[in-house]
Automatic annotation (TrEMBL):
It holds the Pfam family T2SSE. Residues 329-511 form the Bacterial type II secretion system protein E domain. InterPro entries: P-loop_NTPase, T2SS/T4SS_dom, T4SS_GSP_E_ATPase. It comes from Natronoarchaeum philippinense. Belongs to the GSP E family. Residues 629-654 have a biased composition (Basic and acidic residues). Residues 627-654 are annotated as: Disordered. This is Type IV secretory pathway ATPase VirB11/Archaellum biosynthesis ATPase. One of its GO terms (molecular function) is ATP hydrolysis activity.
Length: 654
């Protein structure tokens, strides 16, 4: 059999190409650097024949060809077609040499010919899988559609758009790449990335590959500027050094194709599902989860895992197979990364969640419809006047976003201690506006890298002096310490945190029953704000669903809604207007009446509406506006005190 196949393969001077195939585990790697066909299997019959020849000896899950700094990965049905062609050529060679030769070069036609040749030969096509794979392939352009990427990249991108896709939108990304949104009949939308590296000519791609090899070999010094130095070392006159440096930086110091995807303002999440070689990367685009034309390789996923271990200082291995960390993309963007690996998943897998270019404020949440001005005014005054509040909701509902926005409502004079295991709250932005904020990083597990347990962090925070306490998430034994501190007033200011739950009753059950906090301690909570995500007419949106005050009664804790969501609009229940709110009574200062608090809420609502109307919702603008308001309040207070003293002095003179 081997001699017969060798005779078929050697049939003619043009029977071979310059490709050099070699197996690497379940992957057939093909060096096409010296081949005129460049390893383009959809275009070159000779390259196809070389690959099919290799697959007559052994199957492979994927075929990867490399030339001129570019890799083309043939996976799924493309790999299945090539493997089936190899099996068919081997099985049919002793019956029909010409058909075996055709299967090497043109397996689609060979399948059609086999179907017309009778039951024995068509049976071989069916048994080897060639008939089934070839039946759904209209042409090699679709049947052998590769995932393509520069050799420097860990990810691979399908070169051609979906054959049956209708173009809906074209998007230009900040990274220099482009994206297109297609719609496929019966399959919905798909996100198609066009990397900036695709615009490079052959010389530029070769230069990029040479710079990468130099960098990988440690041929340049200086960690921070190494990519640029590597490019300049191998560049010729006319080489686009800046562009190549940016691409090399993105793929060696950044997140590669993930950086491109997250640079789209409409993409909030990127999902890489294990095993990454077999699953397309997906994105949350305008609230809809779409497949992309991008796939990570196992090597790329392993490199990302190593990068996150170094950046976070936390273990990520079989012994500690989960990871939660934050990472920087570009100069000023932060993403939250959640990862899993063996043995809880089939290899490395990640979810990247964009935390936004700039933190949101309460005026910004009013502007985007998360909550109306009157409810926002209540939360603003409550936080400013040292309430104890919990923000409840499911994962992805926007709890942390709302908590971060509320931190801007604290007085700049308030010392704030923020406790998180994965930094997500806008501590850096608050510090930039001269706030006194101390961040404490915790580890859920004492062995999980740097940081202390949440309980130890909370006790530490209470020793750092009076001020506001902010917990990224209330979920463990630290809840008992927190509520004991709240009960005795140890914080001296606002206490805020997020918790999983769906409304006040659910939160009480979680805190009291699950976290073993006495109900009498839970009663010191002032309010519970519930947020939720839902699909609206313009896509996925987040809304405050309910604002509840906590009532401490003789028969136990109860809840009363101050605002509730009706037909997509958060509306007051009338409890405040009727003078029934216990929360407003708690917020009153000495000498203030219930009417004074209502007047304060009205003024705060007008202020928020004005900031939204004037598009002054960014942190710097909000900090400035609040500073002016607080200065005016101090001046008015001094003037009133001066008038009171003058009146007393006048009475004394009489």
């Amino acid at each position: 059999m081997r001699k017969l196949l060798d005779r078929i393969r050697g049939g003619g001077d043009d029977g071979y190409c310059g490709c050099r195939p070699a197996f690497d585990g379940e992957t057939l790697r093909v060096d096409a650097g010296d081949c005129a066909g460049a390893g383009k299997l959809a275009e070159s019959e000779k390259c196809r024949a070389t690959v099919v020849d290799a697959l007559t000896e052994r199957d492979a899950e994927r075929v990867v060809t490399r030339t001129d700094g570019v890799e083309r990965a043939y996976e799924d049905r493309a790999a299945a077609l090539l493997v089936a062609a190899g099996r068919f050529a081997e099985r049919i060679a002793f019956r029909d040499e010409r058909l075996a030769e055709r299967a090497r070069r043109d397996p689609l036609r060979a399948s059609r010919d086999a179907d017309a040749r009778g039951s024995q030969i068509s049976g071989v096509a069916a048994e080897t899988g060639l008939a089934a794979v070839a039946e759904s392939a209209a042409s090699y352009e679709t049947a052998l559609r590769p995932y393509v990427g520069p050799t420097v990249a860990g990810a691979r991108v399908a070169a051609r758009p979906p054959a049956d896709g209708r173009l809906l939108d074209t998007r230009s990304l900040d990274t220099g790449s482009d994206a297109r949104i297609y719609e496929r009949p019966g399959a919905g939308r798909t996100y198609h990335l066009l990397p900036a590296s695709w615009r490079l000519d052959a010389d530029a791609r070769a230069t990029l590959a040479a710079a990468y090899r130099l960098l990988a070999a440690g041929g340049v010094d200086g960690e921070d500027r190494a990519p640029g130095r590597a490019v300049r070392r191998v560049a010729d006159e006319g080489t686009p050094v800046t562009e190549l440096t940016e691409i090399l930086e993105k793929h060696t110091r950044g997140f590669g194709a993930v950086s491109d995807l997250l640079s789209d303002p409409a993409v909030s999440d990127v999902f890489a599902t294990a095993p990454v070689d077999d699953n397309p990367v997906r994105v949350l685009f305008d609230g809809d989860r779409l497949p992309t034309n991008v796939r990570l390789t196992e090597q790329d996923a392993a490199a990302l895992a190593s990068r996150f271990r170094r950046a976070s200082g936390r273990a990520f291995s079989r012994a500690s197979p989960t990871l939660a960390a934050s990472a920087e993309i570009g100069d000023d963007r932060t993403v939250r990364v959640a990862g899993v690996t063996d043995p809880v998943s089939d290899g490395d897998a990640f979810v990247f969640r964009d935390q936004g270019d700039e933190p949101l404020t309460i005026p910004a949440l009013v502007a985007n419809g998360t909550l109306p001005p009157d409810a926002a005014a209540l939360l603003s005054v409550a936080v400013e006047r040292s309430c104890a509040g919990l923000i409840a909701g499911t994962r992805g509902a926007g709890k942390t976003t709302l908590l971060g926005a509320l931190l801007w409502e604290l007085s700049p004079a308030t010392r704030t201690v923020v406790i998180e295991d994965t930094p997500e709250l806008p501590v850096g932005a608050l510090l930039d506006t001269d706030r006194d904020v101390q961040q404490l990083t915790t580890a859920v597990d004492a062995d999980d890298g740097p940081g202390i347990t949440p309980t130890a962090a909370l006790r530490t925070a209470l020793r750092l002096g009076e001020g506001a306490l902010v917990l990224g998430e209330v979920r463990g034994e630290e809840a008992q310490v927190l509520y004991e501190a709240m009960r005795v007033g140890a914080s001296g200011s606002a206490v805020l945190g997020t918790i999983h739950g769906d409304g006040g009753a659910s939160v009480r059950e979680r805190v009291v029953a699950d976290l073993d906090v006495p109900e009498s301690s839970f009663a010191v909570t002032d309010l519970v704000v519930t947020v939720a995500a839902y699909e609206g007419p313009e896509g996925r949106a987040r809304r405050v669903e309910r604002v509840e005050e906590v009532l401490d009664r003789e028969d136990g804790v109860a809840f009363a809604s101050l605002f509730e969501l009706h037909d997509g609009i958060l509306e007051p229940t009338g409890r405040i207007g009727r003078g029934e709110s216990r929360l407003l009574d708690r917020l009153r200062r000495s000498g203030e009446s219930y009417a004074d608090i209502r007047k304060l809420l009205s003024d705060r609502e007008a202020e928020l509406e004005r900031l939204v109307t004037e598009s002054r919702t960014r942190p710097a603008d909000v900090a400035t506006a609040y500073g002016v308001r607080r200065r005016d309040e101090r001046d008015a207070l001094r003037e009133n005190e001066h008038s009171d003293r003058a009146e007393v002095d006048g009475e004394a003179g009489k």
